[in-house]
Batch of 4 targets.
Target 1
Amino acid sequence: MTVSPVKVQKDRVKPSPFARYKPLLAQLRTPTALAAIGVSVLLLLLPVLFHFDGKQHANWQQFLGRFHPLAVHLPIGFLVLLPLLEIAGRRRPALREAAGFVLTLAFLSSVGALTLGYLLAYGSGAQGATVVHHMWAGIALTIGVLLCLMARREWVAADVSRIYPLLLTVVLLLLIYTAHQGGSLTYGGNYLTQYLPAPLQRFAMSGQTKENDGSFYAKHIHPIFDANCLSCHGQSKVQGGLRLDSYAELMKGGKDGAVILAGKPTESLLLQRITLPADNKLFMPAEGHPPLSAEEIGWIRTWIAQGASPAAASMPGITFAETPKDPPITPVGDYSSLMAEIHQMQSAQGAKLMTVSSKPSDGLVLHTIDVASSFDEAQLKQFEKFAPYIVEVELGHTAVSDACFDTLAKFQNLRAIHLEATAVTGAGISKLAALPHLVYLNLSNTKLTKEAAAQLATMKNLQHVYLFDTPARPPAPVPVIAEPRLATGDKKE
């Protein structure tokens, strides 16, 4: 009897789930990887080694740091281009090689932008939540790009197929967040939310508090700070330890102490700084912002002299003329029968009639920007056929002269006339008084005479008149500022 041999089945050894990552783990032990880890540690220690203390440092740091807004666009461009090259590189190997070069440039430019940004913040003494968030996001982004640079080699070799795409996705998300924080520093934290639809805006602004809306401070003082100072002295960015985004923060002062001394305008540091010569190192507002107007400084001085109240509704010595309201908009006739001719005009070269909206009753606007240099009274007369439906004429920078007033007087539904940078002197401008709905007239940079400007005062419907850079030189617009009465002991500056 023969015995059949016993078949011995060897146990199959299952590969470790981490086997596919061995090349990457091996790469982490290379000198290049160790150097990358060292760079990452240094970046993470940067805020510890150079802590934001709110004090200004060397001028050279601020000088170099101000190149940060320019340099920051380089890594943004490279990182946005990178995924496009990687996708296209599936079919064209040359593009995949280019992607590796672009990734290297992205890392180098990220390091450069981060260095300049840190010099800017540290040198200028900037503080604030948004400054800190922007800094940490920039550090994380730079480290993320470095990790992509390391992981990409194995991804190209197809040994590890998922780590690099995942890291690149994280980097792109970090790029969006970092850019948003940087934009908030430049344009304000409400840059994206300012024009949100009403329901979304209420949700976005739900956690914010408002000052007493009816007070002189809320209506006239805080808007000055909001427009000129909060980019450096707001919640997002704080220089010199001073915040001006609320009354409480304003009165708290900064590193140099209180900036407002109620009843003592000449001793108030804030007023001293905004009245320094513009070339003085301590002049405010700084960083390229224009000086406050004499009117704005007058409001601040009077507000401080009268006690710097957060609730007072008015200030003795300052009066405001009531802002007149525009009359209700009168609908024009139905120009639907002329739409074929209007559409033909819009597609042709020359002056165009554009619809205000989809409702014919809202009227038409005459545009001449494409042919401004050659558009004159003769061409304006060709639009008399459409006069009952035209509510605005844009004649700025055209060749029209005073003769245009004869034609414009026939456009009975005109609400706005642009004549800036034309040759008009105002002779015959009184004919515009026949336009019952005219509320806007721009005559800036014309040869308008004082006599012609005086005739505008008889046009009761006009609410918005612009006469800048003309011989007429109109008086200062309202509000009218009276000389403030100074508190006892103060000297008039």
Target 2
Amino acid sequence: MVDLLIIAGEHSGDNHAAHLVRQLKERHPQMNICAIGGPALKAAGAQLLFDLTQHAVVGLVEALKHYPFFKDLLDWIVQWVRIYNPKAVCLVDFPGFNLMLAQRLYRAGLSLKSGGTVCICQYIAPQIWAWKAKRRFAIAKYVDHLGTIFPFEKAYFRDVNLDVQFVGHPLLEEKNPFRYDTHGPLLLLPGSRISAVKRVYPILAGAFRQLRALHPDLIAIIPTPNEEIHDYLRKHAEEGIFLSKLSEIRNGFSGALMSSGTASLQVALAGIPGVIAYRANPITFTVGKRLVKVPYLSIANILLNRPLYAECLQDISDQTSVVALQAEAILSSPELSRQKFLEGSQELYHLLSAQQVFTAADWLEQYC
């Protein structure tokens, strides 16, 4: 019998879910956990049924292009759940796909809320405080239990009938791969999806070239999350930029040029100064600017409610040069920058650890 099926469609979700699996396996070695996720979940001890992280997409246009694939996968998962009847299904982030799956399981009569036997848990809530606030009604209808990673999120679900618990942010439990070193190289983080990397990397590489003209000894390191991204970056190698697996990084970093994803919060928690560059499909960007209700893209800036990290978006003139200019301000005043970002890091730790009652593993363990 299967105790738990985990669905994680992105590399960050794969890593967070893997941390949960390791904790559950330590407590219950015989627990049967299957996953539709990625290599981190497999390494943690889950039986990987399908690598969904190789098909992660972001944005309206990208999702529409891949709709037939995701529709077929949803049908397959529903059939798998019908046959193997896991005690619980844990949906990790990836809301566009996972909410459709929760709805399918409900309509198939498999979930608890539709009279079935499978408990549906959502770990890491969709950011309804930023956009698509009405999603809370769908979550309340199709999901049994919601574990949030930000303490303020609970309040956004108070008008719906849903069990919501703040379970702590996973980055506070996991070892941070990044640390600050005033003499270290630059850290480049173009993203964890190949489509995003192809848009953001040219901006970061161009900014690095401009910085290197001022600092000839400057080097940069890019931790690559998978082989596809590694191969792409290797083919577009720039002088002074080196590739590395995240697990092999040993040195600290003097600064970071990065996209606005989960890794940017790891950088912020490490107190590393940096600059954020964002570039999406033009249609996705235009629609997003109209719908998003928060003043920042970076979660660190959102949590702090101030622009600790400069955000250079694609609608500014000469985005590459602006990123380089912001980074040069950091590199030219390392002590001043360090103090500013260290204080930001301490604030973030305080915000993310407030009001926590139990861990995500404690929360999920109850249902599987």
Target 3
Amino acid sequence: MGFFFSDDNNLFLGIDIGDSSLKMVELRKKGRQIFLSNYAFSENVSEINFTKIENLKYLASVINKVKVDANILSQRATVSLPTFSVFSSIININNFDRKSLALTVSEEAKKVIPLPLEEMTIDWRVVPNKDGKVPTRGNLRVFLTGSPKKLVRRYIEIFKEAKLSLLSLETETFSLVRSLVGNDKSTVMIVEIGANSTDLSIVSESIPVLNRSLAVCSSTITKILAEKMNLDFVQAEQFKIDMNSALGESDNDGEKKLPKIIIETIEPIVTEIKYMLEFFYSQNKQQVEKIILSGGGALLLGLPEYLSKTLDINVIIGDPWSRIRYVEELEPVLKEVGPKLAVAIGLALREIS
């Protein structure tokens, strides 16, 4: 999709390397406004698992091919780290000393990170109080993340081979918070229903404080449909797209209802959401205000309505384009691909914000 701008200045590229897909979003900032410059995605390329492939040269060539084919111009990129590969935790520090805070965080990290710290790249940030201010005395909460150095080195090698400048690596969850939550400080849950996993995060004050990952995902639904309807995977995937008219029933209000086969398949996701909502409330005496859906699985017609009624909470499909300007004629297409590109959009926004 090559359009809009040809000037290579002030371009910001986010690249989301998923389990079975590669997604890119290129943004451009002009004044205080952010414009969509370009986007591209390639799914199921030779059915290769992008996050596990050992052939770094091949992965670099795929990145370059998608980039060139879409006429993406930026030579600098912010790239996602898969959520499952990054450890994260909130740690509490009592009576902290600002001068030795870094050392204290390091000592606390040894207690919660399951791997030796010398094998990890550690990052941390102080969690502000509810008034948005960082404490200067007393107790402190710190959000800690750790990424295996081996994985980080691998990404560096991939982008060196692709001849692209790797500006930074970021966990998918933070990118989703940036694109779907923005400056909203309310407590929300993000449910990312991807091709090979479903990631759930409760976000408070823009910090993901509780995270879970499930194997039940968009591909699970496709496989169940293939099995029940004697279809191959590709046929079942297409059927899933078309099933709104083929299988969907309407309730008394005329709204589309999820087919029973889908409801049964996503039951583990619903159960985990309930558990996380109850656990968060028991620990914080605070309700999650809404659930934001993302990922390709979020586009199942009737899913937000079903979850909203089942969980008794407001459920919406996230809009990662809310802060971005684009050609009006593209709105129907961008609305459809938005949930799939939410991570890449958040990555591109990182260097702009």
Target 4
Amino acid sequence: MVITRFAPSPTGFLHIGNVRAALMNFLLAKKSKGQFILRIDDTDPERSKQEYVDAIKKDLEWLGLEWDRVEHQSARLDLYDSASDKLRSKGVLYECFESPSELDLKRKKQLNMGKPPVYDRAALSLSNEEKLNLKNERGNGHWRFKLEQNRIEWTDGILKDLSIDAASVSDPVLIRADGQYLYTLASVVDDIDMGITHVVRGSDHVTNTATQIQMIKGLGGEVPNFAHHSLLTGPGGEALSKRLGTLALKDLRDAGIEPPALCSLMARLGSSQPVELRLSLDEIAEEFDLSTFGSAPTKFDEKDLYPLTHRYLQTLQLKDVQSNLDSIGVPKTLAQSFWDLTKENIDTLNDLSDWWEVFSIGAEPVIKEEDKEFIERAMSILPAMPFDEHTWSNWTEEVKQHSGRKGKSLFMPLRLALTGKERGPDMARVLPLLQNIKAKQ
């Protein structure tokens, strides 16, 4: 059985980069009728907040990414205790006492000498007496995993054959001086214990994966199938990290982006498959194929979500949006006509309120200086309400006879005066819904 996981830290809101990893792992499990685990990485008690746990769950539920079970790493500390004891007994977990500033100085010296900034393992040469003195002087140290300094090789689900020289990588810190377990250890222990078979994550984790493969083997676990997707950039190739504050899922949701649009885009972005709207996660999962993804940085532009959302809205029936119409005050008697008229002229459901304002209280008219007299005359011969489906054609024909205007010079000024917009639904269908006309006042 395919078992995947998504392991966010509850230290902030989910953003578009997180969503890509969550979606890929979900689709991989769903396609194979496997399991998808939500694993909350909350081993940092100071930064982890329940409000973010709740927000993460809300975002995933909104997208439809249902998890088979949820786990909290803060409730699994005994397992990490046992794993660290096992690694100590094997002599591959050792205590270090360097301060951050000392480590930084070492890295700078190595770089100045043209060497990779790799931890020099000075702690391994400390005598028991030296360790005791340092502990008395500085308190507990941090703990590192001793890597076997050979090549670590694996076949990646996206990047294909990978090989990393462990000698070029620092021994990873697994436990902080205050006793907090870091992600590397917790993730490895959980992946083994939960039987995780596939891990999809960003290519910035490739080096982490190499060290984790050694740790998994050191703990006697089965190495999952790893796949590293490309990193997202902005539309101009700029680092997306600078814009993540505007790309939180809650912000996209508030902007009116619909889940099928977001999932359809993110399931294909960076692959050789064209982006196409799919209405359900079942459809998206059926077509999902990791082998179609490439390694090159992938451009993401949130503007691409609006055409997909627009196309999705065209598939909705009145019952699907009735609550939205109720919330902006559309009477039940006009709801069907209003939805049929506006759904082709909105990018998101948020746009409905603008259209209802046009119909209910009247639009602020847009009248060019050269059209003032024309509009004033046209409004003077506009029939009294209520209008019907023939009002527009009969009225514009009469205006045409009086003014001599035709085509765009006739219709566009009238549309702008009645709706305040250059584009919109057929005016013959708009007029019967108008409750008020400010241009006539």
